[in-house]
Structures are given as structure tokens and as C-alpha cells.
Amino acid sequence: MGRDLFSKNHGIAAAVVMSAIAVFSAFASASFAQAGNAQTRLAVKKRDVSVTAGNTIVVVDKHPLRLQVLSRSGPVLLDSGPRGGLGFTVGADQELVPPSLDGKERQVTLSPDAGNYSVTRVLSVRKRRGVVRIRLATNGPAGSKALLKISEGRSHSARLRASVTSGRKVTAVSSTFRSPAREAFHGFGARRESTDLRGSDIKSWVLDYRFPDASTGYYAPVPGFISSKKYGVLLEGSRISRWQMAIEGSNTWRVNKAGKSMKLLVFPGGARKTMKSISSISGRHRLPPGWSTGPMLSRTIGVFTDGGGKYQERVEADVDRILKGDLPVSSYGFEGWAAMPLAQVKDVVSRLKQKGIRSFLYIRSFVSNDIAGTETPGAYDYAIEHDLVATDAGGEPYLQPSPFPGGTAAVIDFTNPAARRWWKSRIFRLLNTGARGFMNDFGEQVLPEMHFADGTMGRSMHNRYPTLQAKVTRKAINKWKRLHPGEDEVFFFQRAGFSGKPGSAAYENAQFPGDETVDWDPGTGLPSIVPDMLNRAVMGAPGFTVDIGGYAQFTREHPVLPPTSAELFTRWSQAAVFTPFFRVHNSGLDGAKMPWDFDKATLAGWKRMVKLHNRARPLTRRLWKRFRKTGVPMTKPLWMVDRAGARGPRGDDEWLLGNNLLVAPAMAEGATNRPVRLPPGCWKLSGKGKRLKGARTIEARSPITVLPWYTRCGTSPLQVRR
To answer: Are 661 and 684 contacting, i.e. CB atoms less than 8 angstroms apart?
Structure first.
């Protein structure tokens, strides 16, 4: 089906829509007043079919096919236009081919019968057990049939399931709807381009940096969004999907999903209501233990600099400095623990614990014989020999190049009961060191041609895998806790994520953004963390652990970037102050740059930011508890409170912590000033000084020592409540 599906006669279309609103608002009052939200009601008329499902009314014009979703209060949420909006693909579909390991798109051979087709008209309608089933005609190959099922979904949504069968292989189903020029789209999980994704072409496919291009690292996608038109959409299932959100100036948005069916949930309501509805299905981040939100130091491994025992020496030196100095640290992580002598690991954890400092460690979802230094000796051989990994078509372990130099890797098969037991034993070994947290890394390495023990192919497992990884990990932690009552709560954060019923967010405490580049690039470096954090937050995953200093020292243009500079480290620290976590984690090639690795002024500035972050921790925790009930995140994008201001560039480099604290860090190299959009109301810089009128953009001083932040007049959000 072509991308331009609809008539350009918007005046006629608008009149039709307004007429439909009037007719169906009256119809809803007369026919649905006693229906209640728990029932699906059907009304079949000569020209159309109307279904009440949840808090929506779904109207299907019979011929030509037209699909509309209206709020029960009247407004039209979705309108396919007069050409139906439902389509399907027969034969190979190049636009849904996943990227290969090197980041290049796989090419497919198009068969002579390949093509795109449309659903054209209603053939029959019936209702059974609360589900309205509408058979549809198509213009596809002989024998092609379509079925639209309409029912009430969770959280009073409308659940639309379109499926197509044909004499030839159906590879994708698509839906297309009108989009007015000023409609904004928010969410989609980990997206770094903007907090308004109108104009974006998005593949919902868990993807790491696919060396050497860090710009492809979209680690935790969610196939759904929140619209400024007061509705939300969530696509069920884990197959790859492509979302074209009014691209190239079009007046439509389109989703195309691999497979022969598509299940869409449509939620009516404003942003807060929609956030609550979507996250009640896909999951919300768990409240973390209090220590984890304090300042964290993480000793990463320098791939080319920390061999030959140097890493262990650096860990010991870190611990000595932390214990002897005046560093305000709540926890310390060392990623290379698995390759260290276990007695040394336990000694490090014990020494820190005596001073009230927790330790967090590291685990990854594949095994490898690479040089990264994060693998338990013998784990790779054990997993291969005992068939604990994904396989190829012949049942042999599927080996691929490791993301790190020097070896091959194999993905752990979490559908295999034996592999799950082995993973649990690894979690137990980690926690038995005395550590109470860990990074649960990777999860993006499943390739389409892999085979899993439950019969699933990699093309279906790829997006599902991070959720399975998080679920198996949470079950292992829960088992360990039952065996160790009275121990501290365990904290884990994950890189890869995806949605589901529930998705990975339901099992994690947090996510980390992946491998941001060690630079100022707005698409991959420091500025990219703000839209990334906010797009995750509105979809149920606000637990965002920054990588202070950046991690990836490579881009396509610059295979090796210089290590984190003092200025970049300082600005990243400032940007992390009013986020849920404050974690130093950087420089994957050269090894971590700690606060003391720079000059005295940089260390002093980092300590000042630690104090400010600690002041915000009680507020963040209160807001997190509220988020668990409401789905409204602690960190809020500007568009939630200032729709006019969010249309400008400030929507992607500012946010609010709660309702009364605005954050506007400087994230440009050499900056001494920056524009700040103040939302409507009255604001004060750093909670004091003169009153500043909102609903306008001001120029704020931001030399290297200054983080611009504001509180709403008459409030004290950082004041500790007694």
C-alpha cells in the first residue's frame, strides 16, 4: 500500500469528521449511557459499524473502508481517511529487514509477486464474547482475506487487531492515520533525537552501537507514543515495527509491523492519564534502595589499558582513596570483578561496607572468550559445552564476533531451563560477595537467524530478549532474598529494554543510556541524554542512570576520540544532578576518568554537584513513590507544562523534577550563557533572588562553575519534610 493513502480534500474530510462527532456523541448518550466501561457494544447500520470499547467509540465505514476512533466524550482521536488505512505486504518487505551486525541493512530478494495491498470494504460483522469481528475485502492476490477484531483492552483502551491471510506469504501489516500539522508525538522509549518525534522515521528494534557507529544505539525502544491530541498508542507484540511519524511533511502517521497481524491499543485522555494507562500494561520501574540514588563511582575496564593486573591495582587504589579521603560516595562499582580472585572481591566489598559504602558489580547476557576482563574464567567453555546458548539451524552454538576485541560470543538462551538455573547460580555468586547491586549489561545481540530452546527464532526473540533477561534476573534475586531474609534490597540496572505485558521496566530498578560518545555531539554525546531520559520516562522507565563523562570513544567519523576532558566531565556532572542517579561511568577504551583524575577545581566542582544531588534525593524519592501509583515520572519534559515553549529547542535540553523545580544545564562546549525557557508562572534562580516571570525565554549565566536551575515562587522543593 502506498504511503499517501488519503484524499487531499481536507475541507470535505473535516466536515465528515465534525458530522461524525455530532452523530456519535448523541448516539453514545442514547445507546451507551448504561453500558459501562467493561462492555463492548455493537451497532450495525446501513453505512457503518460502531463499537463502544472501553472509553472509545470505534466507527468503521463499510464502503469505502474508513476507520475512526473517537473518545466517548466526542473528539476524534484517530481517522484513517476515506481509503481505509489498513494495508499489508505480500512477499519480502525491505523496510522491516533488521540491520545486520555491522550496522548495514540486510538486502532481500524481492519475489515477482511481492507487493503492497489495501483493505477495501466490510463484508460481514458479528459479535462473540465481547469481541466484534469484521471480515474485510482486499485488493490483494486471490484468496486474500482480512479480519478486524475490536474489543476493550486493558485500562479502558480500544484494542484493534487486524490480521490478513493470503494464498501467498503475508510478511507485514500496516495502519495509517491522519495527523494534523501541529500534532506532536512523544515517547517511543529510548530516542535521542527530540522529545517531539514528529518527522521521525523509527524502527522499533533493540539496537546497540554496531561498532563503529554510536548513532545507531537505541537500546530500549517502546513501540508506542503519547500524542498532543490527547490519546496514546501501544503496539502489542515484539516483532520489528517501523513508525513513520508525519515524515517528509506528510499529514499522516504510519506503523508497519512484521508478521500477518497487528494489535494496537488506543488510549483516550491527556498525557497524565495516558502515561498511567500505558505503564500499567508495560510496567513501571521499581523503587530502588536508597543507597543507589547517592553518588556512585564505577571503575570501568580500559579495553586496551587495564590488562596484566593493572585493573586490580586500580580497584585497590580507588578503595584506598575513598576510605582515606573526603569523597562523598554512597557506592562503588568495579566491572572486572568476575576475573579477579574471589577472596579479593569479597575483601574490597567488606572494606567498603564497614564504612557504609555499598558495592555494585557487573554481569552480561552473553559469554565470550574476549579480552574485556568481565567474564568468569571458564564460563564461555562451560556454557558452550552444556548447550546453554542460542544455536544455529543445525543445533550448534551460534557464535558471533564479540563486541570486545579478541574473541567470539554466544547469547545465553533464557528460554532453556538449564540456562536459567545457571544464570541464577551466577547471580547468587555475585550477591554472595556482599555486593548489593549490579549492572545487567547488553541484551541486544540476538540475530534473526538464531534458534532458541522454546522453538522461537531470533527475529521474534530479538526485542523480547531484554524483557526475558530482566525477568529471569528478578526471579533469581527474589530467590536469593528468600534464602537471605533481612539482607538489604538488591539493585540492578539494565542497558537493553523493551515493552511487553509487562516489559523489562516492571523488573528493573533502572536503565542506563548505553554508550554515549565522549563528546558534545547532540545526537550521541552529552546533549543526547536529556531527550533520551525524558522519552523513556513518559513510557514508564524514568529510572535513568547517567554515564558521567560518556563512554564510547568511537564514532564513524572519529574511530578514536580523546578521553573525557575536565570541562566535559564537569558539565556532565551538572546535567546529572537532578536526575534520579549520579553515576560516574566513562571512557571504555582508556579506562575510567575519576573525579580526582582532573585538576583540583574539577574535583571541587564535582563535590558541589554531589551535595546538590543529595539535597534533591528526598524529593526524587517522594516523586518516585508517587510515580509507582500514577505513572507520571519524576523527571518531566517541558511539553507537559508548557506546550508553547516545548515547540522550541528548549524542549530537548530542559526538564522539571516534579512540578516546581526546573533544570537547564549548559551542554555546549565553551558555554558561558544559555537560553532558558521558563514555563508559565513565577520562578526564582536556585530558589532565591528576584522573581522571574514565566512563559518566556531568558538568557542565563552559565560559566563552568554554574548549573542554572529554578524553583517555582512560593515553593521549596529541596526542603526536607519532617
So the answer is: no
- State pLDDT tens for residues 128-182: 999 999 999 999 998 899 999 999 999 999 999 999 999 889 999 999 999 999 9
**Per residue in 350-377, is it b (16+ CB within 10 Å) or e — as a string?**
ebbeeeebbbbbbbbbbbbbbbbbbbbe
3-state secondary structure 208-252: CCCCCCHHHCECCEEEEEEECCCEEEEECCCCCEEEEECHHHCCE
Give the predicted TM-score (pTM) of the model: 0.93
Q: What is the pLDDT of residues 190-239, one digit of tens each?
A: 999 999 999 999 999 999 887 667 888 999 999 999 999 999 999 999 99
If you classify domain 290-632 with CATH, what class do you get?
A: alpha beta
How far apart CA 683 and CA 687 sit, in angstroms, is: 8
Q: Among 487, 579, 489, which Cα is nearest to 537's?
A: 579
Closest to 234 (Cα-Cα) out of 283, 200, 192, 195: 283
Cβ neighbors of 401 (< 8 A, separation 6 or more) are: 101, 408, 409
Q: Tell me how far apart the alpha carbons of residues 612 and 610 are, in angstroms, rounded to a whole number.
A: 5
Euclidean distance between CA atoms 674 and 160, whole angstroms: 46
Q: What number does CATH give the domain 638-712?
A: 2.60.40.1180
Give 548's strand partners.
584
Ranges of each domain in the chain: 10-178+231-268, 290-632, 638-712
Pairing type for strands 221-227 and 145-152 reads: unpaired
